[in-house]
């Protein structure tokens, strides 16, 4: 597609861009275009090994096209990909993506539940890009397909309490020489207030620490952590505790710790995981929770049996162990790198069920061992359909039955999809 042309969008790619099949068989991606639309696109350029074309005009819009509710979307904000698509169409597409991923894995007849969609304005975690330019500091998200930072004035997917921090943070950065050119600000909304991890490309001076303390006091931030680029994290300001209740148990996460994106998304994942367990756990009712993090799943699983939680991040293991001991929850937390040292087939034999919530890359090292083990039940929490498809293939090849599949959309208006899949060894329960 060397020149501007009219074309028809045939489907959406995994990133939410429209797709056009070119005569030579190659695919061209068109951001902000929807399936079935007749569009005018600009000349295609190659980026990251794929062809991309700019959407010039929508000649025949999809019935599901909507006016984007956020003005930043039309400015090119990369935080969202699908604001121009009706919510029900997004939910149906995400459900179909999960069905296709499971079909590729060897489960063509998988019954997939309706998509559980969390509401907008509830995202409790933000990773803001920071950029200093002459006379100003930018706080926002990267522009779509670009390293440029779009300065935010509002955001419809973030919790309003996070949005309210954007202007004060921008004002702070103007007075913080430690931000020379670029940095980041990860904010987790905890029960005790926003928890800020600030990364800059310059050193933080003693006077700047005083500025941070005053900012924390004004903004109601109990803790500000700081690091230089990818260096070690240190606590710059601590005005009070930084805690969050996970299934009723108070946990003290490290700065920047991983949390499920929204309370509603967390609740939907927990509900699907518990529903995916056998009605009666065999033997000593032991459950392994792999990639356990802070214990988002370990803690509610403890109501079903004794939980052995495995996690590679030392601070998360410490936070979970402390919280479980204080609350008297039946969880034992162990630090273990499950990529380098997955649980063996022999170790897995001790468990009546395995729950795993791996990172985006999946659990390629661990899943084949689980599939060969004597564990009777597995619940897999996925945040990547492609990784899920690869990992689920091991269960299909070993004769496991897929019992339930629930797509969960807690990143509204994005192409990201989470899912909870329940597998059983052999036939249905």
From TrEMBL:
Keywords on record: Iron, Iron-sulfur, Metal-binding, Methyltransferase, S-adenosyl-L-methionine, Transferase
Active-site residue list: 383
SUPFAM superfamilies the record matches: Nucleic acid-binding proteins, S-adenosyl-L-methionine-dependent methyltransferases
Molecular function GO terms recorded: methyltransferase activity
GO terms, biological process: methylation
Recorded family membership: Belongs to the class I-like SAM-binding methyltransferase superfamily. RNA M5U methyltransferase family.
Entries under PANTHER family matching the protein: RNA M5U METHYLTRANSFERASE (PTHR11061), TRNA (URACIL(54)-C(5))-METHYLTRANSFERASE (PTHR11061:SF30)
Protein name: Methyltransferase
């Amino acid at each position: 597609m060397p020149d501007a042309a009219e074309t028809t969008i045939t489907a959406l790619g995994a990133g939410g861009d429209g797709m056009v099949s070119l005569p030579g068989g190659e695919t061209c991606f068109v951001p902000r275009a929807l399936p079935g639309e007749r569009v005018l696109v600009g000349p295609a350029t190659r980026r990251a090994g794929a062809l991309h074309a700019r959407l010039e005009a929508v000649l025949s819009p999809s019935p599901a096209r909507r006016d984007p509710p956020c003005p930043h979307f039309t400015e090119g904000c990369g935080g969202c990909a699908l604001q121009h698509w009706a919510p029900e169409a997004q939910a149906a597409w995400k459900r179909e993506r999960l069905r296709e991923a499971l079909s590729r894995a060897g489960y063509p007849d998988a019954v997939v539940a309706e998509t559980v969609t969390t509401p907008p304005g509830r995202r409790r975690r933000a990773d803001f890009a920071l950029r200093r330019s002459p006379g100003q500091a930018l706080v926002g998200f990267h522009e779509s397909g670009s390293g440029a930072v779009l300065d935010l004035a509002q955001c419809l997917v973030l919790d309003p309490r996070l949005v309210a921090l954007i202007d004060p943070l921008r004002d702070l950065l103007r007075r913080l020489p430690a931000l020379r050119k670029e940095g980041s600000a990860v904010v987790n909304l905890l029960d005790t207030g926003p928890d800020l991890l600030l990364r800059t490309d310059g050193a933080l001076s003693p006077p700047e620490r005083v500025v941070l303390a005053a900012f924390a006091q004004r903004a109601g931030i109990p803790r500000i952590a700081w690091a230089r680029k990818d260096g070690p994290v240190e606590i710059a300001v601590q005005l009070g505790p930084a805690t969050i209740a996970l299934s009723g148990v108070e946990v003290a996460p490290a700065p920047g710790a991983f949390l499920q994106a929204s309370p509603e998304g967390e609740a939907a994942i927990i509900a699907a995981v518990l529903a995916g367990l056998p009605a009666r756990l065999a033997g000593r009712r032991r459950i392994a929770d792999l990639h356990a993090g802070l214990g988002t799943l370990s803690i509610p699983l403890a109501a079903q049996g004794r939980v052995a939680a495995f996690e590679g991040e030392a601070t998360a293991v410490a936070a979970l162990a402390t919280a479980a001991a204080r609350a008297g929850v039946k969880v034992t937390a162990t630090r273990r790198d499950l990529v380098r040292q997955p649980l063996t087939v022999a170790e897995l034999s001790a468990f009546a069920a395995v729950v795993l919530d791996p990172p985006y890359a999946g659990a390629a090292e661990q899943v084949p061992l689980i599939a060969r083990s004597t564990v009777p039940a597995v619940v897999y929490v996925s945040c990547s359909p492609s990784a899920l498809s690869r990992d689920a293939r091991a269960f299909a090849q070993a004769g496991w039955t897929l019992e339930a599949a629930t797509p969960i959309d807690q990143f509204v208006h994005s192409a990201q999809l989470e899912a909870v899949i329940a597998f059983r060894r052999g036939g249905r329960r």
